[in-house]
Amino acid sequence: MPDKKADTTIAHHVELSVGRLDSLSILPCVAARFLPQLLQGQFSSSALADIVKLDPAITAKVLSLISQQGVSISGGRFSLRQGIDKLGDSFIRDALVSLNVLRATGCGEIRKQLTLHSLAVACCAKDIAEITLPQEDSQLAFCAGLLHDIGKFALEEVMPKSFARIFEEAKSQRVGACEVERKYLGTDHTILGRRLARKWHLPDAVELAIWFHHSDTVTIYQNMPGARIAAIVQLANSMARQSGIGQSGSFDSPEEIEPTVSVLGMDVEQLKPIRQSLTRQVEDRAKVLGLDTPDAIARYADAAGTTVAKLAYENARLTDENRRLQAASSHLDFMTEFLLNANSAAGAIDIAQTFARCWQKYFQTGMVCLYLTPMADSLTLEAVVVENLSQSKTVLLNVPASASAIPQVIANKFGILNAQDYVDWLFEQLDIEFDLSRTRLVPLLSSGQATGAIVFELNWPGDIELFEDKLRTAASIAGTILGMARAGQRQERFAELFAQLVSKPKAAQSKIAGGLLTDAIAEMAAGAAHELNNPLLVISGRAQLLAKAETDKEKKQAIDQIKKNANQISQIIDDLMSFAEPPKPKPTQTDINQILDESIQLTSQKTKTEHINTQIEVADDVKSVFVDSAQVVSAIANIITNAIESYTDESGRVIITAESVKFGDFVKLIIRDSGCGMDTQTLQKATQPFFSAKAAGRKRGIGLAHAVRFIQINGGSMEIASEPGEGTTVTIYLPRG
């Protein structure tokens, strides 16, 4: 199993790839529908409104333009059609022409199925909203439903083969897409889609629907009234999946609709006419998009050739004019352009890319590389490389253990260094070559600490002193803004993790407790036990035969020693098998006090101690848990035994508390001691089978491994915190039932 840092690196790569998207690609059949109309002398965006508001990629692009251009919609209610009219024909035409077209035949069918599913969710959401919301908000619900899976569209775009494999695994194992995505990517489409929604400035209600449509929206809506449309979209998603229209990539059972129906103030009977009309509604809209068009790629190619030829001259003229204006800009224009583009919703790497482009353009430098210091939990750092005014890219780089990302001499103060003397590791990893003789390095400082650095080629190295003040000012402003953006990103990650913990407590807590690692160790243990049994049987059998025939006293003693050690190995194998393949739990509703009493009695037997010094506090609202009491009693007894053994004598106190968990239907047990504690290295291995910090031969080290195994198979989780000399705290979550 990959470790946490490797998972983080994979997720970082995926997030960076998805974050590069300025828009989603469209299907060839959709492009073939609107391209011929772009050639008309009197082009009208209104004529294409039906296509624009039905295709997820085009809708997302237009919503982004509406926000970026500050288009206001009269009446304060959402209307995509009104937004299209106010943007004007030229904006809509340019937006349509700028969209890439998906041509890979292998993933085209998946995209069609996702589009059909999105249309079904959109239609359901609109009909539900017409019952539960003001009439005008039904259009916003339709858009939210249409865009709820843009994270999947984005994953298919940047990694089509991997997404197809994720799709097939989810289908074969009958599980949800999120589960498989997190397994292989370290993130999922709800988080990726939410980040795209923020980058593209989509409406808040749409962003929440993208983020929460697989979460516990009932709980979220009760504490966040603004998430009403998210609750509607989740209900619509369940209905669409039940209808079997298209494929969403999730093949587990849809969420139950009754809780959401209730919180929306509806009756299940009100959903019947929506179900009955859903298939017809989707079929009508699919025809508008041309999803059933034969030879779609060939038809698109014909239309594209004619359209591109007509628009090429105009685009070339505008590009030349734009370059001329850039060359004439002043230093003040540089700062104005950068600050206007550094909006609060942009990620740090997006801000860095904008700054690097402005830097090259206004200081008239050669190639530029701007990199950010590594995040605390990452093995890599993010960087953006600008080769020329129209070509830039984001990359991930590794900092060698022997080097520093920021040279110490400029780590907390401004300076201009010869880059080749300090960051040779950077040039080794870039696939472009800087002229090192004229390449300089400048820090980007935030609150007196470097949050990144910018490497650039000076076209006139002799004039560096003339630029120093301007470089200092520009770098200071960029460092401050990037520092704030990095702080915001850290808070975003905490918020996303919190949302997962609230909405999926069992899965999240299991992951925190190391459930995936425990499964891997159990699988390995089972295999090892089976492999050891065969040669052990041969050794034991031969030893018995030799013992019967041997008359020499010394040789007979040696054979007896072989038999004794074989028996010890057999006991170890029994321990392995009980850990790897424990009996299937038989949960019953059991009083928590009874479990604790039996655990203390079992501990007394294990330690041969007549009196266990315990202090037990059970909250009034904690009555029982739904577990296999024998397994859980064994687990808790092992933990208490470890706590007792952490003291120099057997009279050390063990404090046990039981309380309810606010979010989720769990009981939290906390078992604390004030014994010797564990260092970080010991703590990381504490629950591994046969690991023991005690002297060899004294303990097998299977107690905590059994404990976490029994807790896990009973639907709970276990966490351990410890400091040398400060004692150990074990926190257990058990289901109420």
Specify the CATH class of the largest domain: Mainly Alpha
Q: What is the total number of structural domains?
A: 4
Strand residue percentage: 5-15%
Strand order of the largest sheet: 3-2-1-6-5-4
- The CATH architecture name of the largest domain reads Orthogonal Bundle
**CATH T-level topology of the largest domain:** Hypothetical protein af1432
User: Mean of residue pLDDT?
Assistant: 80
* Cα separation of the termini: 31 Å
Number of helices: 29
Care to describe what's here?
Helix 7 (105-132) runs antiparallel to helix 8 (138-147), helix 19 runs antiparallel to helix 20 and helix 26 (592-607) crosses helix 27. Residues 1-6, 502-517 and 695-701 have low confidence and may be disordered. The chain is built from 29 helices and 13 strands. A hairpin with a 5-residue loop joins strand 10 (654-660) and strand 11 (666-673). A six-stranded antiparallel sheet has the order 3-2-1-6-5-4. The protein starts with a helix and ends with a strand. It is globular. With 737 residues, the protein is an alpha+beta fold. It folds into four domains: 4-296, Orthogonal Bundle (Hypothetical protein af1432); 329-495, Beta-Lactamase (2-Layer Sandwich); 515-580; 588-735, 2-Layer Sandwich (Heat Shock Protein 90).
